[in-house]
Design goal:
The protein is an alpha+beta fold and 382 residues long. It has 2 domains: 258 residues, Aminopeptidase (3-Layer(aba) Sandwich), CATH 3.40.630; 115 residues, Alpha-Beta Plaits (2-Layer Sandwich), CATH 3.30.70. Helix 1 crosses helix 3 and helix 7 packs across helix 9. The chain is elongated and about 85 Å long.
């Protein structure tokens, strides 16, 4: 492997390798994380890491790498995701990795191949430096598949029993440390009815009219109730009805109607309990109502006073929160506290002309290199 000459060239290599999540409408037939995983694994092997490529699905692996010293006093992990969102509708070539106007353009340049390149370049510099022989930290790199859909890669790591003193999930946070974010609770709510000819609607029962009563209840009762239970840092949980469908033909009374609901929930809200309570509440209004859990990504709420979290916050741009969710909430727990951090702005993520500035990218690589040195000093002091 002939390696890149700098972090910009490294990012261009990463962007030029399609790793689009296959869920939904990817906008390309070049989907999955296999090629990206192979590149990252080779890069880390050339840095001297012990590397595994562990398949979670066909052509969709996690990359798990470790730099393990003889006398390890701590274990820290960088944990970016390998996949990107769809390239449909992009106005720049998604995989050209063009450099212009002091920016790298392309899908994933910000979310999250830019932060990944910055961390990889910092690890490379450290691994090839004299400082490595005095290391007291096991440094891990977790390249996770599937974050842009259902977080299968992070979930697999958590279920494998992975633990460390701090997992740094790489996301574009402008080098702030995100210690709390909302979770995503996606629900499908359906109402039933009795179909009949549209000329005699009194002989049937409209599922759409029933859904109207459900929608009224959600807007007038459920949403205000959520607003009254605010998290001190994240505010209240929210609810949005994203889609609605029902009926089959204009002259038939509809016997089914369905909505999809996106709830962004704060710490303390448990997915299945929320679903069951909402279903009971809605059935009191419309008995023929079912509420199905489509997805639950838990919220994140990591204690800023944990020693390694506190030290990272002091080195970075302090602590912050986020409205989005991430792999951190799956990895996080008593045996693996997790935060999000990385260069670049979330405002550029998923956009039709996604880019990261060269300044942000290079600053990110420099920050992660300084952080490795600061962490090693902290490990020697403890």
């Amino acid at each position: 492997m002939v390696g890149p000459s700098d972090v910009v060239e490294l990012l261009r290599d990463l962007v030029s390798i399609p790793s689009v999540n296959p869920e939904g409408v990817p906008g390309t037939d070049r989907t999955g994380e296999q090629d990206m995983a192979d590149y990252v694994a080779d890069f880390l092997r050339h840095c001297g890491a012990e590397v595994q490529v562990r398949h979670i699905a066909i052509g969709r692996p996690n990359v798990i790498a470790h730099f393990t010293p003889e006398n390890s006093a701590a274990h820290l992990a960088f944990a970016p995701h390998l996949d990107t969102v769809s390239v449909a509708g992009m106005t720049v070539p998604p995989f050209d990795a063009a450099v212009r106007d002091n920016r790298v353009y392309g899908r994933g340049s910000t979310d999250t191949k830019g932060p990944m390149a910055a961390a990889l370049w910092a690890l490379r510099d450290w691994a090839h430096s004299p400082a490595r022989k005095d290391s007291r930290i096991t440094w891990s790199f977790l390249g996770l598949m599937g974050e842009e859909a259902t977080n299968e890669g992070a979930l697999a790591m958590a279920e494998s029993g992975f633990s460390c003193d701090l997992a740094m999930v790489l996301e574009p946070t402008e080098l702030g440390v995100v210690t709390a974010h909302k979770g995503a609770l996606w629900l499908e709510i359906s109402t039933g009815g009795v179909a009949c000819h549209g000329s005699t609607p009194d002989k049937g029962k409209s599922a759409i009219y029933a859904m109207g009563r459900v929608l009224e209840h959600l807007q007038s009762r459920t949403i205000p109730a959520l607003a009254r239970e605010a998290h001190p840092a994240l505010g209240p949980s929210t609810l949005n009805v994203g889609t609605i469908s029902g009926g089959s033909k204009i002259n038939i009374v509809p016997d089914a109607c369905r909505i999809e609901v996106d709830c962004r929930v704060v710490p303390g809200v448990e997915g299945e309990k929320f679903r069951a309570d909402l279903e009971a509440e809605l059935r009191a209004v419309v008995p023929e109502t079912d509420v199905r859990l489509k997805r639950y990504s838990p919220p994140l709420d990591t204690d800023t006073k944990l020693p390694w979290v506190e030290r990272l916050g002091a080195e970075a741009r302090g602590f912050t929160t986020a409205p989005w969710f991430s792999d951190a909430s799956y990895l996080s727990g008593p045996r693996c506290p997790a935060v999000c951090i990385g260069p670049g702005s979330i405002a550029q993520a998923h956009t039709k002309d996604e880019f990261i500035s060269l300044r942000d990218l290079e600053e990110g690589a420099q920050f992660f290199r300084r952080w490795i040195d600061a962490a090693e000093t902290f490990a020697h002091e403890r």
